[in-house]
Design goal:
The chain has 33 helices and 17 strands. The protein has 1099 residues and is α/β, with parallel strands linked by helices. The strands form 4 sheets. It has a 10-stranded mixed beta sheet with strand order 10-9-8-11-12-17-16-13-14-15, with helices on both faces. Helix 13 (431-438) packs across helix 19. The chain starts with 41 loop residues before the first strand and ends in an 11-residue tail after the last strand.
Length: 1099
């Protein structure tokens, strides 16, 4: 047994796993350096046994592979290590894998040289709490919770608000389950929902939903900014130092002035935030913890105030006139009169409803005079029993005054100018509207998946953190806040007061907090500002990721940014789109818009999980096991239902936008292969359809030509006759099956690269000619055998070809090689044996291209024998294409002497009428006539040539003279052929030279044979033609005369193709008959049926 020396080698490419495997590594490479201890590359092991340092690859081959690291234990695999690496090398690369930052190149693409020079990115170290749970909490506890949840509870009541929350949270919980399954099915680089959907459903769905998610995130930033501005203008700025730029000229113009102020301040705030994001994103990320702390402190203060209200409810008195709620900041005392120095004087409230200085009441508002002014507690407290009054909803119309049902009121007509003194509804409310407004509060579930690139273990953190956050916010916080706290502590008219007019412009949720309403005001302001900054930071990166995927060409510019990768152009577009949301200026109108986009995204997350689960693809192995396709379908249905419940017209607009993006990517976008589920779904559907088609042959009504087009490639692998593909596309018009086949002559092991090049050439030509089909290349030692293989094996199951289209072997007469026409006839026989139809376009180079248009002309059908109806069907299919659409169809049939031509014409017209085919009918009478001298001579020349080539072994010079004789008699345009100049049969190797001894007898016999050759030639020239060949030639000549006479100016002539003779000795004569039959016609299509009916008169 040989011994080897372990040589220590410094190798940077050696992985860390090498030292862990317990392998003693041997360097078999030629390093080109001399080792002092091994000068002769032969050493001793100390026992007198010599050993070599490089026993296997110490040669030139080893020098060429000196960068590879071979082990003697892997010698069997050493020749393939460049394409099949060692397991240790693979594992080392997987260990060094790091999630790519959001918006960077795809993880499956090769890193560029510039990227390889960058420093190693910092490994992600965020856990479940900081990476997923708390960011989800921050997004869910957002602007809707602080600004609109109390209003939703007041309008919808506790029961219906519970239903709204339950619907939205159930939808997000089901989506989170589906998202957890997708997120744990392999490594998810940064990209969040877009990455998961695009890699699960394909680039079309991924791009459409990714842009919807981007638009939703962008409009979310506008919503958060509008919420912050509303808090700033309404709740933070005191009335005496109002920051409003626009002021209402009357009480009815206050809404429009407020909207204009929101637009101005919102635009300013958006610009400042965009500058902050552009200058320093790292500061935004650092401030995220501060903003999250504000949210948590605000939630805790609400709980503290609610429990404190059981014993010491806060003092927020509500002034009521009758049962109507008054705007509290328009007067000082809730009374009609006040006592000043023992004198009763009118109060500010009196002066608002009456003329100044008038105490009589004759010039006061009627409703004010007839109803009393009372004061009720705005926050009765947790133990007051107010929950019974707030149990059911009280939806209102726009401009309707907020009224308390339990107070006495005298119904009287009030003056319109005093309408501004009452708290009224600014918009009409309904259950569906409230669903659309509330849903953005539940859209924070993607915060964890969007940070997947920063998570230490994304497959563990995303499902645990997301589901835990939804459970916490849904059950503990939102449900308790809406049902128990808000409905049990706050008066109904205060709940329905959106802007806090009844409580002196205080934030309604702030009235319940402890120790001060300012905790909620400041906390909610910073929370909304932080959420807006986060949205403005994430949306451009999402757009950059979509742009860098290169699936939407016009978005490529947004993939570029600053040198550090920051998406500058994407940030600019995001700011412009967010400005559109700012210009809407209404939080209640922006919220349903982003609800649509988020619901669209969640819908496709559920669809992706359901499709992957039902397809059961081998790669679908999620670590998260608590999912089911039924839950995904339920979540998808809920998303769709919520879209139309909240706003059906917004839902339609969002679906139209997504559909347009989908179709754009499908037709114009770059093709991507991501192993998506839609491709798997297509494969499953194709398999199901093929199994259904396997039941039996198609009915005659469903029959259409499923083409196998046989092409020839020249020496440079270029398609020799592309017009064959053009004609196939015109005949098929994109319908049915088209297989384009060709044969590469050679050995498969040696010609595989040539086969791939040929396949790519044909695919390119198919794309140019707009042929929708498949390409099949066969490598065979003989082209004839390859064609037989194609005819037998193309197609799958019920999707097999039933028609073969091949070119005519041009120049077969001039060719000395008989293989050209022999292959053609062999193919005709194979199609007949396989019961396949056959089409042979002759003079195909003169056929029209797809850009030509025939404005007039005829398509002539010469129906000589019935062959299944192919001759009737093909012109009808051709006329469906724009090239042939304006051509008229004429059908000619041949009548013999004993036929009734008049009756034949009537029957044929009736037959075409029942076939629903419009065509001009004509019956041609062919009278019996004697065989002409031309026919006799033509037959004689044909047989002479055939016999000459078959019986005589001519020398090269004699063969050339004989071929020249035929060329002089029958001069035709020499064109290349589908089967000409092909090596159909392997040329036999020349026999080895045998040393022979010539005797006198052998020499004299050879001399006699040479002298008899001219006599044999003279006997051949005196041969008489066979009578059967004369009859066939007579038929061909007579038919050709009639066809040329009637159809010489036709755009296309369709003609029955006679079958080859049963006796193979007459094959060459068969080719001559076809030539005579089609002489003088510019475009001819020879057609043979497949032995079955392909057209029917029945419906």
């Amino acid at each position: 047994m040989p011994h080897f020396t372990v040589v220590p080698v410094k190798d940077q490419a050696q992985s860390n796993y090498d030292s862990l495997e317990g392998i003693n590594w041997v360097d078999y490479r030629d390093t080109g350096q001399d080792c002092p201890d091994h000068q002769d590359s032969v050493s001793s092991d100390g026992h007198g046994n010599h050993k070599e340092d490089s026993p296997f690859l110490n040669n030139a081959d080893a020098a060429s592979k000196k960068n590879d690291f071979y082990d003697r234990n892997l010698a069997l695999f050493e020749e393939e290590l460049d394409i099949r690496p060692k397991v240790s090398s693979l594992l080392s690369r997987l260990v060094s894998y790091t999630n790519i930052t959001q918006g960077a190149k795809e993880h499956e693409e090769a890193e560029s040289a510039e990227a390889s020079r960058r420093k190693t990115p910092k490994s992600p170290n965020m856990g479940t709490l900081m990476g997923v749970y708390l960011p989800c909490l921050q997004n869910i506890f957002g602007v809707i919770l602080f600004l609109r949840l109390t209003w939703i509870v007041g309008m919808a009541g506790i029961m219906q608000s519970l239903l709204i929350v339950l619907m939205c949270c159930s939808c997000t919980m089901l989506t989170a389950i589906s998202m957890s399954a997708i997120a744990t099915n392999g490594v998810v680089p940064a990209g969040g929902a877009y990455f998961m959907i695009s890699r699960s459903l394909g680039p079309e769905f991924g791009g459409a939903v990714g842009l919807c998610f981007y638009l939703g995130t962008t409009f979310a930033s506008a919503m958060y900014i509008l919420g912050a501005i509303e808090i700033f203008l309404v709740n933070m700025i005191p009335k005496h130092c109002s920051a409003a730029i626009f002021h209402a000229t009357d009480t009815l113009g206050s809404d429009s002035a407020m909207l204009n102020n929101m637009r101005v301040y919102g635009s300013i705030c958006l610009s400042l935030m965009a500058v902050v994001v552009f200058v320093g994103v790292k500061y935004v990320n650092k401030l995220a913890s501060l903003f999250l702390a504000c949210v948590i402190i605000s939630i805790v203060s609400i709980y503290a105030g609610a429990f404190k209200s059981m014993t010491h409810p806060p003092e927020f008195p509500i002034c009521m006139l009758g049962n109507r709620t008054l705007v509290r900041d328009r007067f000082d005392v809730c009374a009609k009169t006040v006592i000043k120095g023992n004198i009763t004087v009118p109060s500010q409230l009196w002066e608002r409803f009456c003329l100044p200085g008038n105490m009589s009441g004759t010039q006061c508002d009627d409703y004010f005079i007839q109803n009393n002014v009372t004061e009720i507690q705005g926050i009765p407290g947790l133990g007051s029993g107010i929950i019974r009054e707030n149990m059911w909803g009280d939806y209102q119309q726009k401009g309707e005054i907020l009224e308390k049902a339990g107070l006495q009121s005298v119904d009287a007509h009030g003056a319109m100018e005093n309408f501004g003194m009452y708290v009224s509804a600014d918009i009409a409310t309904s259950f569906t509207l409230l669903v659309g407004i509330f849903f953005p509060s539940a859209t924070g579930i993607m915060a964890g998946s969007n940070r997947s690139g920063d998570l230490r273990d994304a497959q563990k953190s995303i499902p645990v953190g997301t589901i835990l956050a939804i459970t916490t916010t849904s059950l503990v916080c939102i449900l308790i806040l809406s049902v128990v706290l808000f409905g049990s502590c706050i008066e109904g008219v205060v709940l329905r007061d959106k802007f806090g007019d009844a409580v002196r412009k205080n934030l309604v949720v702030g009235t319940l907090s402890w120790p001060s309403p300012w905790v909620i005001v400041i906390g909610s302001f910073f929370s909304t500002v932080g959420a807006g900054l986060q949205s403005l930071t994430g949306a451009p990166r999402l757009l950059q990721a979509i742009a860098k995927d290169n699936i939407i060409p016009f978005l490529r510019v947004f993939g570029h940014g600053k040198t550090n990768g920051e998406p500058t152009w994407a940030l600019l577009l995001t700011g412009l789109i967010a400005e559109l949301g700012i210009l809407i200026a209404s939080l209640d109108m922006v919220a349903p818009i982003l609800s649509m986009f988020f619901l669209m995204c969640y819908l496709f997350v559920n669809l992706a999980c359901a499709v992957q689960t039902l397809l059961r693809t081998p790669n679908w192995r999620p670590r998260f096991k608590y999912y089911h396709w039924a839950l995904s379908f339920l979540g998808m249905s809920m998303c769709l239902a919520l879209m139309f419940i909240s706003s059906w017209y917004y839902a339609i607009v969002a679906m139209v936008i997504a559909g347009m993006i989908y179709k754009y990517i499908e037709y114009q976008g770059a093709e991507k292969e991501w192993g998506d589920g839609i491709r798997g779904l297509s494969l499953s559907a194709a398999r199901y359809a093929l199994l259904r088609l396997e039941v039996g042959p198609p009915h005659t009504k469903n029959w259409r030509p499923q083409l196998l087009v046989l092409l020839k490639l020249d020496e440079d692998l270029h398609v020799k006759y592309p017009r064959l593909l053009t004609f196939a596309s015109q005949l098929k018009a994109g319908k049915g099956l088209t297989i384009v086949g060709s044969v590469v002559q050679g050995n498969f092991l040696e010609s595989y690269g040539e086969m791939q090049a040929a396949e790519q050439t044909i695919k390119n030509m198919m794309e140019i000619e707009r042929v929708k089909g498949f390409c099949q290349i066969v490598v065979a030692s003989k082209v004839r055998e390859g064609i037989v293989h194609l005819i037998q094996s193309c197609g799958l199951g019920g999707m097999k070809h039933n028609t073969v289209m091949m070119g005519w072997p041009y120049g077969w007469r001039q060719s000395e090689d008989p293989r050209a026409w022999k292959t053609f006839i062999n193919t005709v026989r194979c199609t007949t044996a396989g019961h396949l139809a056959l089409m042979v376009p002759k003079n195909v180079s003169f056929y029209p291209s797809n850009h030509e248009r025939f404005t007039d002309g005829n398509i002539d059908v010469w129906w000589i024998v019935h062959d299944g109806g192919m001759l009737m069907l093909l012109p009808f299919l051709l006329k469906l294409h724009k090239v042939w659409r304006k051509c008229k169809m004429r059908i000619f049939t041949v009548a013999q002497m004993d036929d009734n031509s008049i009756q034949m014409k009537k029957d044929l017209a009736t037959f075409l009428y029942q076939l629903r085919i419009e065509a001009e009918v004509e019956v041609v009478e062919m009278h019996d006539s004697d065989i002409s001298a031309y026919t006799y001579e033509r037959t004689l020349m044909m047989e002479q040539r055939s016999q000459m080539l078959r019986q005589m072994r001519l020398s090269g010079a004699e063969r050339q003279r004989e071929a020249q004789l035929v060329k002089d008699r029958h001069s035709l345009v020499r064109m290349g052929s589908l089967y000409s100049d092909e090596e159909e049969e392997v040329v036999e190797a020349p026999p080895e030279k045998v040393q022979m001894t010539w005797t006198r007898e052998k020499c004299e016999a050879e001399r006699r044979n040479r002298n008899n050759a001219p006599e044999n030639f003279r006997e051949l020239m005196s041969l008489k033609p066979d009578q059967s060949n004369v009859r066939r030639m007579h038929t061909a000549v007579k038919l050709n005369e009639v066809i040329v006479n009637r159809s010489h100016d036709a755009r296309l002539v369709l003609l029955n193709m006679p079958g080859p003779p049963r006796n193979t000795d007459g094959d060459e004569n068969y080719m001559e008959f076809l030539e005579v039959l089609t002489e003088g016609l510019e475009r001819v299509l020879l057609v043979r049926g497949g032995g079955r009916e392909v057209i029917t008169i029945y419906s």
